[in-house]
Amino acid sequence: MKTASTTHGRFITLEGGEGVGKSTQIATLRDLIAAHGFEVVTTREPGGTHRAERIRELLLETSEESMPASCELLLLFAARATHLENLIRPALARGAWVVCDRYTDATYAYQGGGRGVDPGQIAALESFIQGDVRPHLTILLDAPVELGAARARARNEAQGGSDRFEREQQAFFERVRRCYLQRAQDEPDRFLVVDASLAREAVTRQIEAGLIARLLAPASPQSSSTPPNPAKTGAAGFQDSPSESTGSPQRGSRQPGSR
Ligand SMILES: Nc1ncnc2c1ncn2[C@@H]1O[C@H](COP(=O)(O)OP(=O)(O)OP(=O)(O)O)[C@@H](O)[C@H]1O
Ligand SMILES: [Mg+2]
């Protein structure tokens, strides 16, 4: 697989429903990887580059005009195509570790599980847009839907506003959660499932332990012939911070997949 074996970098994705703590934990991941001497690029989907962020705005805006599931799906993959071409692939090729807040599992969970889009259609677009680029590790932050919703609600009240995905109904998010967990069960080697209902520090510890066991220890100079890059970190400039209220499009409606 191109991402996994023919590039020097590592591709890590963070997944999970609304408010589980993805944006909160991404800084931890960045710091841990950087401390091991690798360049780190943090980014998000939909978005991550200028054009992809413009598409994200289209996905999240509320409008009188209805958004067909097919339109949402194609916009998600359009954003992913330019994100891959302009940010993810170049970073991996130069040996950087890319940490992405939501990716194609979100498309399967939100558009597939949530909205009922045929997973076969998502798979066809995944193959067309991504080729064989897949994450080396996907960290699934799992928590009861009500808990994530309560966290997201409190965050949004503090910051003002919510997007159209965050207004989806509970049954929708239950389907999203089930789809994520099923995917994790189907691909245990790629997924690390973390109990996100715990306190922040406990979630961080689970992520650190999994990252070290799965990727950092095997990639250390002692066990690999490829030396790490000089320590440095970089951000795409679009990664949302824990204080940001914008939801990711992959969720509810539009996530095509990406998220
Ligand atoms: N383990 C935790 N315990 C309690 N609160 C948390 C925990 N992790 C994150 N939070 C808080 O919950 C809220 C949601 O967290 P965050 O924005 O990181 O979630 P998210 O998964 O990125 O959400 P979204 O899907 O909307 O992007 C924030 O206010 C954050 O500070
Ligand atoms: Mg977030």
From TrEMBL:
Residues 219-259 are annotated as: Disordered. One of its GO terms (cellular component) is cytosol. It comes from the Bacteria. It catalyses: dTMP + ATP = dTDP + ADP. Residues 240-259 have a biased composition (Polar residues). The gene is tmk. ATP binds at residues 16-23. Residues 14-207 form the Thymidylate kinase-like domain. One of its GO terms (molecular function) is ATP binding. InterPro entries: P-loop_NTPase (IPR027417), Thymidylate_kin-like_dom (IPR039430), Thymidylate_kinase (IPR018094). One of its GO terms (biological process) is dUDP biosynthetic process. This is Thymidylate kinase. Belongs to the thymidylate kinase family. The lineage of its organism: Bacteria, Pseudomonadati, Pseudomonadota, Gammaproteobacteria, Steroidobacterales. Its EC number is 2.7.4.9.
